[in-house]
Write a structure and sequence with these properties.
Keywords: Cell membrane, Membrane, Symport, Transmembrane, Transmembrane helix, Transport. It comes from Arcobacter roscoffensis. The chain has 478 residues and is an all-alpha fold. The protein has helices at residues 2-32, 36-39, 43-50, 61-72, 75-88, 91-116, 132-140, 143-177, 181-196, 199-228, 233-245, 254-270, 277-281, 289-316, 331-342, 345-376, 381-398, 404-427, 429-444, 463-477; strands spanning 119-120, 128-129.
């Protein structure tokens, strides 16, 4: 009965609320900001290059981007795209692209907001904290809602998703290399523990290494596949666009199913608007909140437009996909496609890629949960270490437990988190529009933008945090 209730609520939230609310708000944010994700697109590279670094060891915008990409890029890019194509056909890829481009503006808004309302994690710390729980509490004065958000984040990402990732990785290695799940689980646990007991700075350093390696490696494999099938690319893109509006009769549910699958997998993959990425965006040391909004918008582009497209092209160019065929989907479909392209090595590569994607996602998930613990008790070392031990234990347990029902419950808690976050964003869009105007004005003046924090006191921001950042930047200029 509990499973049926959970499935009903999941279908209600994801299939009847978020499937409309996310695109609607994304379109609203896009229009209200004058297409900010496209206007600022090429500024993303300059922002990463010019990001200010502090001698005290603050986390850079690039490190925050890598940690964010670590969370967005995961099983959804390998298995999720395959599921979308299996259930929605090639046309689902087109709608995945659309939801990604729209989601870039939503991510910009939520991450700029997280930066604006961030706070320092202790007097002598070089780390910042922020996210939906913080801007709900500060901007709206609703701490009880911040508590609910923090609990949902902790359950979803710290416990359920990480334990499930451990199971997926360990069983994949058992299938591909005949390695017992307990051995893979032990390796994951050691790496995971070494990262999280070093705090957010060590987590970002791990992500700074792992994410570029896994993303570039996967991209290179996709480039090889595309190069081997270059003459087929124009026809493939034509097929994707055509099937988006006129799907094959083998796809049950017609165009509605195509749009639904593309949108759902796009949302699951890039997490724009779901309230998770802002927790990471807030930690970056930047001169103006818009800078991190730009960078996090780029994170969505990397995830959906680049890496999801890699998987789609690998599958659709292989010939292993058969419209309407059941039984072969998810990771297996992607593995079969790569084996078809480059031989047995392709299957092994998918397993290793899944390991790296999964490990980086676990570090990201842990940070979201840690941020939630910090919301309840700032700087309590005993509490943090106890929480870390629990998270490590769940990694070990998850490596040999099929946690499908727990993962389904986590989908529900994430859906509730997304609904709350989107409603809050709809209420708090004005501060972000003011941030954009201020940023544009300073660019026109020929200045490198810094937050003029006195202009935003009406929004109840932490003035001392921003005064310290701006004063430090001005001292360096002098």
């Amino acid at each position: 009965m509990l499973a049926e209730i959970n499935d009903f609520l999941n279908n209600l939230i994801w299939g009847n609320i978020l499937i409309y609310l996310l695109p609607a708000l994304g379109i609203f944010f896009t229009v209200a900001s004058r297409f900010v994700q496209f206007r600022y697109f090429f500024k993303m590279f300059r922002v990463l290059r010019d990001t200010v670094h502090d001698k005290e060891g603050h986390i850079s915008s690039f490190q925050a981007l890598m940690l964010s990409v670590a969370g967005r890029v995961g099983g959804g890019n390998i298995a999720g795209v395959a599921v979308a194509i299996t259930l929605g056909g090639p046309g689902a890829v087109f709608w995945m692209w659309i939801i990604g481009l729209i989601g870039m503006s939503t991510s910009f808004f939520e991450c700029s907001l997280a930066q604006l309302y961030k706070e320092k994690d202790g007097e002598d710390s070089g780390v910042y904290r922020g996210g939906p729980a913080y801007y709900v509490t500060k901007a709206l004065g609703q701490k009880w809602l911040g508590v609910i958000i923090s609990i949902l984040l902790m359950i979803t990402f710290g416990f359920a998703f990480n334990a499930t990732q451990s199971f997926i990785i360990s069983t994949s290695f058992e299938s591909s290399f005949d390695i017992p799940t307990w051995i893979t689980g032990a390796v994951i646990t050691v790496i995971f523990a070494a990262a999280i007991f070093g705090g957010i700075k060590r987590i970002t350093k791990f992500s700074e290494v792992i994410v570029p390696v896994m993303a570039v490696g996967y991209l290179l494999i996709a480039i090889v596949v595309i190069a081997l099938n270059l003459e087929k690319i124009p026809d493939l893109i034509t097929m994707i666009v055509t099937e988006a509006f006129n799907p094959s009769s083998a796809i049950g549910g017609g165009i509605g199913a195509v749009i639904l699958q593309g949108a759902k997998r796009g949302m699951f993959s890039n997490e724009a608007g779901l309230g998770s990425a802002p927790n990471v965006a807030a930690v970056a040391y930047v001169a103006h909140p818009v800078q991190q909004g730009i960078v996090q918008s780029f994170s969505v582009f990397i995830d959906t437009i680049i890496l999801c497209s890699c998987t789609a092209f690998i599958i659709l160019l292989s010939g292993v996909y058969v419209p309407g065929q059941e039984g072969v989907q998810g990771v297996l479909l992607t593995q079969n496609a790569l084996v078809e392209h480059i031989g047995p090595f392709g299957g092994y590569f998918v397993t290793v890629a899944l390991f790296l994607f999964g490990l980086s996602s676990m570090l990201y998930n842990y940070y979201l949960a840690e941020n939630s613990v910090n919301f309840f008790s700032k700087g309590n070392t005993t509490l943090f270490n106890g929480f870390r031990v629990l998270c490590v234990a769940l990694i070990v347990w998850g490596s040999f437990q099929d946690l499908g029902s727990i993962f389904s419950f986590a989908d529900l808690s994430m859906g509730l988190l997304a609904v709350i976050n989107l409603v809050v964003l709809a209420i708090l869009y004005k501060p972000v529009l003011k941030l954009i105007k201020g940023y544009d004005r300073q660019l026109k003046e020929g200045r490198k933008p810094v937050l003029r924090y006195n202009d935003y006191q009406e929004f109840k921001i932490d003035k001392d945090t921003w005064k310290e950042i701006v004063d430090n930047i001005n001292d360096k200029k002098a």
